[in-house]
Amino acid sequence: MIGSRIAAEAGKRGHEVTGVTRSGKDGTLAADASDADTVARLVAAHAAVVLAVSPPRDGIEAAESLLEVGRGVLDGVRRAGVRRLAVVGGAGSLEVSLGVQVVDTPGFPEDALPPVRAQVTLFELVRDNADDLDRNGPTSPRPR
User: CA 103 to CA 85: how far, in whole Å?
Assistant: First the structure.
C-alpha cells in the first residue's frame, strides 16, 4: 500500500530503505512494530523512520492495536537515537474547518468509522508524545 510506494520512491532517489511489514512479504522484513526492542534494532543507524501502518483487518480491536504500534515505534526510535519520524495515513484527522475533522463531518461513511478513528487515535498519540522528535504527519502539532 502506501508504505511500499514510499519505499520505492525513496529507493529511486538513492536512499537505502529497510522495508518492514507484519507479514514479511514482497522483500520486506517481518516484525512486530509494537515491540520497541525490535524497532530499535531495525532502525539503528537509520536517518529517519516512516510509519505507514493501517489498522489490522483480522477482527482485532483497531484503535488499541495501532496505539500499541505507535508506542512501540516511539520508544524504539528513541532507543535507537533516530530523531526523524514521519507518520503517514488516511485523511480522517485533517480539519475541514476549525476543530472539525473529516471523520466528524456529516455523511462520513459509517462502515469506515472504526479504522479511520483508530488511525486518528494513532496520529494523536504521536502528536501528543513526540515533541522530542523531528516529526511530520497529517495531524499538525497542537498549539502550546
Answer: 24
Q: Alpha-carbon distance 129 to 74, whole Å? A: 8
Interval 48-52 mean pLDDT: 95
**What per-residue confidence (pLDDT) applies to 142?**
47
The residue among 4 and 76 whose pLDDT is bigger is: 76
Distance CA 67, CA 65 (A): 5
β pairing state of 95-97 and 100-101: antiparallel
Quickly list DSSP for the chain: -HHHHHHHHHHHTT-----EESS--TTPEE--TT-HHHHHHHHTT-SEEEEE----SSSS-HHHHHHHHHHHHHHHHHHHT--EEEEE--STTSEEETTEEGGGSTT--GGGHHHHHHHHHHHHHHHHH-TTSEEE-SSPPPP-
Which pTM was predicted? 0.87
Burial, 26: exposed, middle or buried (Cβ in 10 Å; 0-12, 13-18, 19+)?
Answer: exposed
High-pLDDT (> 70) share of the chain, %: 92
Please determine, for residue 144, whether its predicted confidence score (pLDDT) is greater than 70: no
